[in-house]
């Protein structure tokens, strides 16, 4: 998290900004938030009177609704701002939009933008006083997606109750597909390695970014070689909307070499899980058999995303300790 001069969390722009302690605190707080979701009344009064603005310059379903649900469960007021049909479509700049939000008294701005670096610009510009949360910028990063992915892996492989204060030391996570255009992959590499996991990227050579050798991970071009040693396999959507050239011969060829089907899933260890950030291209990177199996966590990831985003908003706007009085005691017990 980018911090204020006093050292308090101020913004969440990049997973690379998170220390191990930051990440574990968010995941532990998310465990407490998940317990709230099991109650008959799924709300906390923590952010009553605060205003959270969802500022989305790109289309989104899961992320926008997830942040909206998270803020409302914390009793915040939520304003959803879509670039389509707004003054942005008439040419208004990011600065003028930000100044408008500041005039409305936004305490936090959750921004998704097609340009890499836009959330950082918003956070460091002085245009707004509120916290800034990056909900995906260009092909750069998507830190809350990485957090919910880590939360899901930890729950599946460590356990929800045993998970408090635990991390992912030694776990092997394989990320497969369109690495070049994936902000999810970049954030996951940063966060998962910070938490102690070993990450391997698998993709066609044309979909591996330049400079990947400087990333804290391994690279393989054979999915079949890495599956037997994987604790979690994360399948990425091929982002054809970001492609202006032919990165592989045909969809059928891509699926044959890099798609996950039932036969490939059988090569994975019995405890291993299959993940997908959504939306899925069924039949391309993942078959219906795998997507609908009990080993696929795609639906869990959506539910966990609300808990994680509640934790992020709470820690940025509410406090620096775990959310509920019982959390500190449970954390101490699990050390």
UniProtKB/TrEMBL annotation:
Pathway: Pyrimidine metabolism; UMP biosynthesis via de novo pathway; (S)-dihydroorotate from bicarbonate: step 2/3. Its EC number is 2.1.3.2. L-aspartate binds at residues 90, 183, 237. Keywords: Pyrimidine biosynthesis, Transferase. Coiled coil: none annotated. Gene3D superfamilies: Aspartate/ornithine carbamoyltransferase. It comes from the Bacteria. The keyword NADP does not apply. Residues 10-154 form the Aspartate/ornithine carbamoyltransferase carbamoyl-P binding domain. It catalyses: carbamoyl phosphate + L-aspartate = N-carbamoyl-L-aspartate + phosphate + H(+). Carbamoyl phosphate binds at residues 62-63, 112, 142, 145, 278-279. One of its GO terms (molecular function) is aspartate carbamoyltransferase activity. Residues 170-316 form the Aspartate/ornithine carbamoyltransferase Asp/Orn-binding domain. Heterododecamer (2C3:3R2) of six catalytic PyrB chains organized as two trimers (C3), and six regulatory PyrI chains organized as three dimers (R2). NCBIfam families: asp_carb_tr, PRK00856.1. HAMAP family: Asp_carb_tr (MF_00001). Belongs to the aspartate/ornithine carbamoyltransferase superfamily. ATCase family. This is Aspartate carbamoyltransferase. It comes from Streptomyces salyersiae. The gene is pyrB.
